[in-house]
Amino acid sequence: MRSLHIIGSKGPGGAERFYTRLLQALHRGGHEVLAVNPPDSHVARELGRNIRQQHVPMRSIMDLASRWQIRCAIRSFRPDIVQTWMGRATRLTRLRHGQRPVHVARLGSYYQLKGYRHAHAWVGITQGIHDYLVDSGLPAERVFNIGNFVPAVSPVAREILSGLRSSLGIEETGRVVVATGRLHPVKGFEDLLAAFSLLPETLAGQSLYLVIAGDGPLRDQLHAEASRLGIDKRVRWCGWQDEPGPFIELADVVICPSRNEPHGNVILEAWSHRRPLVSTDTKGGTELIEDGVNGLLVPCQDPRGLAAAMEALLQDARLRQQLVQAGLATIHRNFSEEQIVSAYTGMYAALAAGL
Question: Can you give the pTM of this predicted structure?
Protein backbone atom coordinates (compact mmCIF):
# COMPACT_ATOMS: atom_id res chain seq x y z
CA MET A 1 0.00 0.00 0.00
CA ARG A 2 1.44 3.33 -1.11
CA SER A 3 0.37 6.54 0.57
CA LEU A 4 1.31 10.13 -0.22
CA HIS A 5 0.91 12.70 2.55
CA ILE A 6 0.60 16.45 1.92
CA ILE A 7 0.91 19.22 4.50
CA GLY A 8 1.25 22.90 3.66
CA SER A 9 2.51 24.52 6.86
CA LYS A 10 6.11 25.57 7.38
CA GLY A 11 6.19 25.93 11.16
CA PRO A 12 5.81 23.53 14.09
CA GLY A 13 2.58 22.49 15.74
CA GLY A 14 0.53 19.54 16.91
CA ALA A 15 -0.63 18.42 13.47
CA GLU A 16 2.90 18.75 12.13
CA ARG A 17 4.29 16.65 14.97
CA PHE A 18 1.78 13.88 14.32
CA TYR A 19 2.39 14.05 10.53
CA THR A 20 6.01 13.24 11.28
CA ARG A 21 5.13 10.48 13.74
CA LEU A 22 2.63 8.75 11.48
CA LEU A 23 4.86 8.78 8.39
CA GLN A 24 7.80 7.43 10.36
CA ALA A 25 5.61 4.70 11.86
CA LEU A 26 4.23 3.72 8.44
CA HIS A 27 7.77 3.60 7.07
CA ARG A 28 8.94 1.38 9.95
CA GLY A 29 6.03 -0.92 9.20
CA GLY A 30 7.19 -1.44 5.62
CA HIS A 31 4.69 0.86 3.90
CA GLU A 32 5.80 3.01 1.00
CA VAL A 33 5.25 6.68 1.80
CA LEU A 34 6.01 9.98 0.12
CA ALA A 35 5.94 13.19 2.16
CA VAL A 36 4.99 16.35 0.27
CA ASN A 37 5.69 19.53 2.23
CA PRO A 38 7.17 23.02 1.79
CA PRO A 39 10.94 23.42 1.42
CA ASP A 40 12.76 24.38 4.63
CA SER A 41 9.66 23.50 6.65
CA HIS A 42 9.73 22.16 10.17
CA VAL A 43 8.39 18.75 9.13
CA ALA A 44 10.92 18.46 6.30
CA ARG A 45 13.74 18.78 8.82
CA GLU A 46 12.11 16.46 11.35
CA LEU A 47 11.43 13.66 8.87
CA GLY A 48 15.10 13.42 7.97
CA ARG A 49 16.51 11.29 5.19
CA ASN A 50 14.73 8.02 5.85
CA ILE A 51 11.42 9.28 4.48
CA ARG A 52 11.20 10.12 0.79
CA GLN A 53 10.18 13.76 0.39
CA GLN A 54 9.15 16.18 -2.31
CA HIS A 55 9.01 19.89 -1.57
CA VAL A 56 6.19 22.09 -2.87
CA PRO A 57 5.84 25.74 -1.70
CA MET A 58 2.03 25.78 -1.21
CA ARG A 59 2.16 29.53 -0.62
CA SER A 60 -1.64 29.87 -0.59
CA ILE A 61 -4.82 28.00 -1.53
CA MET A 62 -4.66 29.77 -4.91
CA ASP A 63 -1.09 28.66 -5.70
CA LEU A 64 -1.74 27.11 -9.13
CA ALA A 65 1.91 26.21 -9.64
CA SER A 66 1.89 24.21 -6.42
CA ARG A 67 -1.34 22.48 -7.45
CA TRP A 68 0.38 21.38 -10.65
CA GLN A 69 3.44 20.17 -8.70
CA ILE A 70 1.20 18.14 -6.40
CA ARG A 71 -0.50 16.59 -9.41
CA CYS A 72 2.89 15.70 -10.89
CA ALA A 73 4.06 14.14 -7.60
CA ILE A 74 0.93 11.98 -7.48
CA ARG A 75 1.32 10.93 -11.11
CA SER A 76 4.96 9.98 -10.56
CA PHE A 77 4.57 8.15 -7.22
CA ARG A 78 1.29 6.41 -8.15
CA PRO A 79 -0.07 6.08 -4.61
CA ASP A 80 -3.15 4.17 -3.56
CA ILE A 81 -4.00 6.87 -1.02
CA VAL A 82 -3.38 10.61 -0.94
CA GLN A 83 -3.86 12.00 2.56
CA THR A 84 -4.04 15.75 3.03
CA TRP A 85 -3.44 17.48 6.33
CA MET A 86 -5.33 20.71 7.12
CA GLY A 87 -6.94 23.20 4.80
CA ARG A 88 -4.27 24.44 2.44
CA ALA A 89 -3.07 21.02 1.32
CA THR A 90 -6.66 19.79 0.96
CA ARG A 91 -7.75 22.73 -1.18
CA LEU A 92 -4.73 22.35 -3.47
CA THR A 93 -5.41 18.63 -4.03
CA ARG A 94 -8.09 17.71 -6.57
CA LEU A 95 -8.55 14.07 -7.57
CA ARG A 96 -11.19 12.27 -9.58
CA HIS A 97 -13.76 10.21 -7.77
CA GLY A 98 -14.13 6.49 -8.47
CA GLN A 99 -10.50 5.74 -9.27
CA ARG A 100 -7.14 5.55 -7.56
CA PRO A 101 -5.74 7.31 -5.70
CA VAL A 102 -8.32 7.84 -3.00
CA HIS A 103 -8.17 11.30 -1.42
CA VAL A 104 -8.44 11.21 2.40
CA ALA A 105 -8.68 14.54 4.23
CA ARG A 106 -7.64 14.50 7.89
CA LEU A 107 -9.36 17.08 10.09
CA GLY A 108 -8.02 17.98 13.51
CA SER A 109 -10.72 20.53 14.35
CA TYR A 110 -14.27 21.65 13.59
CA TYR A 111 -13.38 23.42 10.36
CA GLN A 112 -15.78 24.92 7.86
CA LEU A 113 -16.19 22.14 5.30
CA LYS A 114 -16.33 24.16 2.09
CA GLY A 115 -12.68 23.35 1.36
CA TYR A 116 -12.96 19.68 2.35
CA ARG A 117 -16.09 18.31 0.69
CA HIS A 118 -14.31 17.43 -2.56
CA ALA A 119 -12.22 14.74 -0.82
CA HIS A 120 -13.28 11.10 -1.16
CA ALA A 121 -13.05 10.20 2.56
CA TRP A 122 -12.42 12.00 5.81
CA VAL A 123 -10.72 11.34 9.16
CA GLY A 124 -11.86 13.15 12.30
CA ILE A 125 -9.30 12.74 15.06
CA THR A 126 -11.95 12.71 17.80
CA GLN A 127 -15.43 11.23 18.03
CA GLY A 128 -16.79 14.75 18.27
CA ILE A 129 -15.17 15.81 14.99
CA HIS A 130 -16.31 12.55 13.35
CA ASP A 131 -19.91 13.23 14.40
CA TYR A 132 -19.67 16.83 13.21
CA LEU A 133 -18.58 15.64 9.76
CA VAL A 134 -21.44 13.16 9.50
CA ASP A 135 -23.99 15.66 10.83
CA SER A 136 -22.73 18.12 8.18
CA GLY A 137 -23.79 15.77 5.41
CA LEU A 138 -20.65 13.81 4.57
CA PRO A 139 -21.34 10.11 3.81
CA ALA A 140 -21.05 8.22 7.11
CA GLU A 141 -19.49 5.15 5.49
CA ARG A 142 -16.54 7.27 4.37
CA VAL A 143 -15.99 9.19 7.61
CA PHE A 144 -13.59 7.63 10.12
CA ASN A 145 -12.57 8.41 13.69
CA ILE A 146 -8.85 7.78 14.20
CA GLY A 147 -7.03 9.57 16.99
CA ASN A 148 -3.37 10.45 17.43
CA PHE A 149 -0.80 8.30 19.16
CA VAL A 150 2.21 9.16 21.25
CA PRO A 151 5.20 6.82 21.14
CA ALA A 152 6.08 4.67 24.11
CA VAL A 153 8.76 6.45 26.12
CA SER A 154 11.37 5.51 28.66
CA PRO A 155 11.92 7.77 31.66
CA VAL A 156 14.41 10.57 31.03
CA ALA A 157 17.71 9.93 32.78
CA ARG A 158 18.03 11.58 36.18
CA GLU A 159 21.22 13.40 35.21
CA ILE A 160 19.51 14.93 32.17
CA LEU A 161 16.63 16.22 34.29
CA SER A 162 19.08 17.53 36.88
CA GLY A 163 21.02 19.36 34.16
CA LEU A 164 17.80 20.81 32.76
CA ARG A 165 16.79 22.05 36.19
CA SER A 166 20.18 23.67 36.60
CA SER A 167 19.99 25.36 33.19
CA LEU A 168 16.57 26.78 34.10
CA GLY A 169 17.70 27.97 37.52
CA ILE A 170 15.37 25.63 39.39
CA GLU A 171 16.73 24.02 42.54
CA GLU A 172 16.40 20.25 42.99
CA THR A 173 13.70 20.70 45.62
CA GLY A 174 11.66 23.16 43.54
CA ARG A 175 8.12 22.19 42.54
CA VAL A 176 7.33 22.61 38.85
CA VAL A 177 4.17 23.19 36.83
CA VAL A 178 4.66 22.66 33.07
CA ALA A 179 2.66 23.69 30.00
CA THR A 180 3.61 23.18 26.36
CA GLY A 181 2.20 24.46 23.08
CA ARG A 182 1.85 27.41 20.74
CA LEU A 183 1.64 30.82 22.37
CA HIS A 184 -1.65 31.58 20.65
CA PRO A 185 -4.89 33.07 22.04
CA VAL A 186 -6.81 29.76 21.85
CA LYS A 187 -4.23 28.00 24.03
CA GLY A 188 -5.16 29.96 27.14
CA PHE A 189 -1.70 30.88 28.39
CA GLU A 190 -3.03 34.22 29.66
CA ASP A 191 -5.37 32.26 31.93
CA LEU A 192 -2.50 30.04 33.08
CA LEU A 193 -0.37 33.05 34.05
CA ALA A 194 -3.29 34.56 35.95
CA ALA A 195 -3.88 31.25 37.73
CA PHE A 196 -0.21 30.83 38.63
CA SER A 197 -0.14 34.32 40.10
CA LEU A 198 -2.79 33.14 42.61
CA LEU A 199 -0.60 30.30 43.88
CA PRO A 200 1.79 30.80 46.79
CA GLU A 201 5.49 31.20 46.04
CA THR A 202 6.22 28.11 48.12
CA LEU A 203 4.38 24.93 49.05
CA ALA A 204 5.54 23.07 52.16
CA GLY A 205 8.70 25.16 52.08
CA GLN A 206 9.49 24.33 48.44
CA SER A 207 9.64 27.04 45.76
CA LEU A 208 7.06 26.80 42.98
CA TYR A 209 7.91 27.46 39.30
CA LEU A 210 6.02 27.59 36.01
CA VAL A 211 7.82 26.22 32.93
CA ILE A 212 6.35 27.06 29.51
CA ALA A 213 7.76 25.25 26.47
CA GLY A 214 6.36 26.92 23.38
CA ASP A 215 6.49 29.85 21.02
CA GLY A 216 4.04 31.87 18.98
CA PRO A 217 2.52 35.27 18.25
CA LEU A 218 1.72 36.08 21.90
CA ARG A 219 5.27 35.60 23.16
CA ASP A 220 6.08 39.24 23.90
CA GLN A 221 2.59 39.94 25.23
CA LEU A 222 2.76 36.98 27.61
CA HIS A 223 6.21 37.93 28.86
CA ALA A 224 4.88 41.40 29.63
CA GLU A 225 1.83 39.94 31.38
CA ALA A 226 4.01 37.74 33.60
CA SER A 227 5.95 40.87 34.58
CA ARG A 228 2.75 42.81 35.26
CA LEU A 229 1.49 39.99 37.49
CA GLY A 230 4.77 39.96 39.40
CA ILE A 231 5.57 36.32 38.60
CA ASP A 232 8.25 36.81 35.94
CA LYS A 233 11.00 35.59 38.29
CA ARG A 234 9.11 32.32 38.79
CA VAL A 235 8.32 31.65 35.12
CA ARG A 236 10.74 29.93 32.76
CA TRP A 237 10.21 30.47 29.01
CA CYS A 238 11.83 27.64 27.06
CA GLY A 239 10.74 28.29 23.46
CA TRP A 240 9.42 25.66 21.10
CA GLN A 241 10.68 22.16 21.85
CA ASP A 242 10.68 19.47 19.19
CA GLU A 243 11.20 16.93 21.96
CA PRO A 244 9.17 18.20 24.93
CA GLY A 245 9.61 14.98 26.92
CA PRO A 246 12.35 16.18 29.30
CA PHE A 247 10.37 19.35 30.08
CA ILE A 248 7.21 17.33 30.75
CA GLU A 249 9.15 15.03 33.06
CA LEU A 250 10.31 18.02 35.09
CA ALA A 251 6.68 18.52 36.03
CA ASP A 252 4.97 17.76 39.27
CA VAL A 253 1.81 18.69 37.36
CA VAL A 254 1.18 19.28 33.62
CA ILE A 255 -1.40 21.90 32.59
CA CYS A 256 -3.48 22.15 29.41
CA PRO A 257 -5.14 25.59 29.81
CA SER A 258 -6.67 25.87 26.32
CA ARG A 259 -9.78 27.88 25.58
CA ASN A 260 -10.44 25.78 22.48
CA GLU A 261 -8.84 22.35 22.07
CA PRO A 262 -10.48 19.88 19.69
CA HIS A 263 -8.12 17.07 20.69
CA GLY A 264 -5.21 17.68 23.04
CA ASN A 265 -1.82 16.20 22.23
CA VAL A 266 -0.52 17.71 25.47
CA ILE A 267 -2.87 15.41 27.35
CA LEU A 268 -1.52 12.32 25.60
CA GLU A 269 2.07 13.50 26.14
CA ALA A 270 1.50 13.95 29.87
CA TRP A 271 0.00 10.49 30.22
CA SER A 272 2.79 8.92 28.18
CA HIS A 273 5.42 10.55 30.41
CA ARG A 274 3.58 9.48 33.57
CA ARG A 275 2.68 12.93 34.76
CA PRO A 276 -0.59 14.05 36.42
CA LEU A 277 -2.67 16.49 34.46
CA VAL A 278 -5.06 19.41 34.86
CA SER A 279 -6.98 20.43 31.72
CA THR A 280 -9.73 22.84 30.85
CA ASP A 281 -13.05 21.34 29.79
CA THR A 282 -12.62 21.89 26.06
CA LYS A 283 -14.22 19.48 23.60
CA GLY A 284 -10.97 17.54 23.39
CA GLY A 285 -10.38 17.66 27.11
CA THR A 286 -13.81 16.31 28.00
CA GLU A 287 -13.60 13.55 25.38
CA LEU A 288 -10.22 12.32 26.57
CA ILE A 289 -10.43 12.91 30.33
CA GLU A 290 -12.68 11.37 32.94
CA ASP A 291 -12.60 13.99 35.66
CA GLY A 292 -10.94 12.73 38.82
CA VAL A 293 -9.96 9.44 37.19
CA ASN A 294 -7.21 10.13 34.63
CA GLY A 295 -7.02 13.91 35.03
CA LEU A 296 -8.71 16.94 36.54
CA LEU A 297 -11.05 19.14 34.50
CA VAL A 298 -11.74 22.82 35.18
CA PRO A 299 -13.84 25.38 33.27
CA CYS A 300 -12.20 27.26 30.42
CA GLN A 301 -11.04 30.81 31.15
CA ASP A 302 -11.38 30.31 34.91
CA PRO A 303 -8.00 31.22 36.47
CA ARG A 304 -9.30 30.77 40.02
CA GLY A 305 -10.61 27.29 39.26
CA LEU A 306 -7.37 26.40 37.50
CA ALA A 307 -5.30 27.64 40.43
CA ALA A 308 -7.39 25.66 42.91
CA ALA A 309 -7.00 22.45 40.90
CA MET A 310 -3.24 22.93 40.55
CA GLU A 311 -2.77 23.58 44.25
CA ALA A 312 -4.96 20.63 45.26
CA LEU A 313 -3.05 18.26 43.00
CA LEU A 314 0.35 19.58 44.04
CA GLN A 315 -0.53 18.83 47.65
CA ASP A 316 -2.00 15.34 47.14
CA ALA A 317 0.66 12.77 46.22
CA ARG A 318 -1.80 9.88 46.29
CA LEU A 319 -4.14 11.57 43.81
CA ARG A 320 -1.21 12.40 41.53
CA GLN A 321 -0.21 8.73 41.42
CA GLN A 322 -3.78 7.58 40.80
CA LEU A 323 -4.13 9.96 37.85
CA VAL A 324 -0.78 8.85 36.43
CA GLN A 325 -1.72 5.17 36.48
CA ALA A 326 -5.15 5.78 34.94
CA GLY A 327 -3.71 8.07 32.26
CA LEU A 328 -1.11 5.51 31.27
CA ALA A 329 -3.83 2.85 31.05
CA THR A 330 -5.84 5.14 28.76
CA ILE A 331 -2.83 5.46 26.42
CA HIS A 332 -2.34 1.69 26.28
CA ARG A 333 -6.05 1.08 25.74
CA ASN A 334 -6.84 3.69 23.10
CA PHE A 335 -3.81 5.61 21.80
CA SER A 336 -0.89 3.25 21.24
CA GLU A 337 1.15 3.46 18.05
CA GLU A 338 0.14 -0.07 17.07
CA GLN A 339 -3.58 0.67 17.40
CA ILE A 340 -3.55 3.96 15.51
CA VAL A 341 -1.28 2.80 12.69
CA SER A 342 -3.41 -0.32 12.29
CA ALA A 343 -6.53 1.84 12.07
CA TYR A 344 -4.96 3.98 9.33
CA THR A 345 -3.70 1.05 7.27
CA GLY A 346 -7.03 -0.75 7.67
CA MET A 347 -8.86 2.35 6.44
CA TYR A 348 -6.50 2.71 3.49
CA ALA A 349 -7.01 -0.93 2.47
CA ALA A 350 -10.80 -0.69 2.80
CA LEU A 351 -10.98 2.51 0.75
CA ALA A 352 -8.70 1.18 -1.99
CA ALA A 353 -10.65 -2.09 -2.18
CA GLY A 354 -13.95 -0.22 -2.36
CA LEU A 355 -13.21 1.47 -5.67
Answer: 0.90
